Amino acid sequence: MKFKLVTWNVRGLNDRDKRRLVKSVMKGWNADIICLQETKLEGNMEEKVGNLGRAWKGDIVETDMYTLTCKFESQLYNYSCHITGVYAPNCYIERRSVWVELGAIRGIIEGPWAVCGDFNVVRFISEKRNCERRTRGMKEFSDVIEDLKLVDLQLEDNNYTWFKGGQSRGSLLN
Fold first, then answer.
1. Among 3, 35, 113, 163, which is least packed by CB within 10 angstroms?
2. 42 within 8 A of 68, measured Cβ to Cβ
3. Pairing of strands 33-37, 5-9
4. What backbone phi and psi angles, to 5 degrees, belong to 90?
């Protein structure tokens, strides 16, 4: 079964105007599952953004320091999958804890599994503007993707998914 999964590392969802904007944008996506990540959100997200209608039932399966894994079951089809949201630290040494968490999750999951979020690292030199060499963190990220037998989906429309102020630095964050 094919479905459209959108993941967005959003900042500022405590602000009512930002929530309205996000809700408006989400309606236009026509996504089957939308994963919003906000590390500083206060309160219940569903209460703040509101229910946009559900064709999927989702249950939290595993919560760790840097990951949250949910099992989604289609209400329309005989189909289920797991999705793990990641928010990794910037430091590549600390990021190793994320790789351990993902390995443990892989061990308990059966069937389709999507891993999405903010890994704070790219795999290849071409995925980061002005990057001249492949770092140890980049190599470790690639190794994890291969070890866990994940498929790194490439962007279709844009070169970069993240820009810092005025688009001075760009990175492709998988």
1. 163
2. no
3. parallel
4. -70, -35
Nearest to 118 by CA among 38, 59, 15: 38
- The binding site consists of 9, 38
Contact 96, 75 (CB under 8 A): no
Helix (H, G, I), strand (E, B) or coil at 69: strand
What are the structure tokens assigned to 49, written together?
């953004």
Would you write out the chain's pLDDT as a tens digit for each of its 174 residues? 777 888 888 878 888 888 888 888 888 888 888 888 777 767 665 665 555 455 667 788 889 999 999 999 888 888 899 999 999 999 989 999 999 999 999 999 999 999 998 899 988 888 887 888 888 999 999 999 999 999 998 766 655 555 555 444 444 444
Instruction: Quote the CA–CA distance of 129 and 172 in Å, as a whole number.
Output: 9
Residue list, annotated binding site for Mg(2+):
9, 38
Tokens found for residue 50: 């509101």
